[in-house]
Amino acid sequence: MRTQVGIVGAGPAGLTLGRLLEQAGIESVILESRSRAYVEHRIRAGVLEQRTVDLLNGAGVGERMAREGIVHHGVELQFDGERHRIPLSDLTGGRTIVIYGQTEVVKDLIAARLATGSPLLFEVDHVAVADLDSDRPAISFTHGGVSQELECDVVAGCDGFHGICRDVIPPGVLRYFDKEYPFGWLGVLAAVAPSSEELIYASNDRGFALHSMRSPEVSRFYLQVAPKEDIAEWSDERIWEELRARLETVSGWTLSTGPVLEKGITAMRSFVTEPMQFGRLFLAGDAAHIVPPTGAKGLNLAAFDVTVLTRALSAWYGSGDASLLDGYSQACLHRVWRAQHFSWWMTTLLHTFDHYDAYDRRLQESYLDYVCSSVAASTTLAENYVGLDMPDH
Ligand code: FAD
Ligand code: DHB
Fold first, then answer.
1. Atom of ligand 2 nearest to the CA of 102
2. Could you tell me if the CB of 294 is within 6 A of ligand 2?
3. Greatest Cα pair distance in the chain
């Protein structure tokens, strides 16, 4: 087999890249190790920046999102028995965020890809990438028990944090920056109407809690837990009890409960690789960087990377000009580091840390108070949360 761009991974990065390339008249083959059902039901992100929404609309996959996505103009921060609204749109010249599950974005992108007949292979095994420093890189894999080789001009490593592409790059080329947090998030999807119109980010002595949603009938919650926590220790009853303890601190407000549809624990880390490319391999999305989910940035960053990559590949195929491809990492990393800082900042602002003493906790409370009472400080949160306009570098 031969194609122009070989894409490893059919998460948001790989599928969006495939779609954008198709619009630009560039051929690609997407290889995914999991089944279609698995990738369509892997519950993760929920918050789309307006620029991501615009990108998906421009890519012709926004029809269902326009019907089912929930537009939000603000978020709530809760601490010390009070809730404070951050009016995102008022502070950012009218920008909004849209709540639309990553599962739904992925379903829409897969449906669009299959409708055009462009190659997208699920359940491939033994994926290996070779000859990255030549002008004919190749991806070998097995599909349906048959070994195959895909010759490409370029390989896009969109295979997430645990993928294989990053590790193919020879030692000494990449520099890693990372930070692990002493906690994880227990995520819960529940068949119950949201108890709040807007997202609630709650700081509590028992740990952070987040109330989000997916639809008028389905709510999404997160609880800060120990990083190695066993999900078997968390009965549905215990989850509701803990959510109540952390969220029902505002007088008169109660949390509605319902059947738990799904629950799981994710470790939290920050990670960046520099550069995001080697020879003819370009890393995009979680393969190149991870943020803790408190800032809701991961999927949005993946969408930005592949926009930059598409622009660079279009210029290269169009006129032979490789300068945008050469500058791919630099163009992405500027935004990546802004998102890194914002995600770390939101995380340290809202979570409890075992090593914090009473003094540290008071500092955190004071900072939260400042973020909610100063226009300058709440604008900092708002403009980062809805997505900053940043020049490409
Ligand atoms: P992935 O989604 O990880 O996709 C990579 C794909 O590659 C997978 O399908 C995988 O199966 C496949 N793959 C791996 N190895 C191979 C291989 N060897 N061969 C072939 N295929 C392979 N982000 C936001 O923007 N907003 C949010 O609100 C938000 N909330 C989050 C909440 C949680 C609890 C978590 C865990 C994440 C959240 N994120 C959020 C982050 C977001 O989900 C990720 O950043 C996003 O999934 C990255 O997309 P990706 O395509 O780069 O990687
Ligand atoms: C959701 C996830 C996040 O990481 C976040 O910051 C806000 C909402 C969600 O899944 O709905």
1. 10
2. yes
3. 66
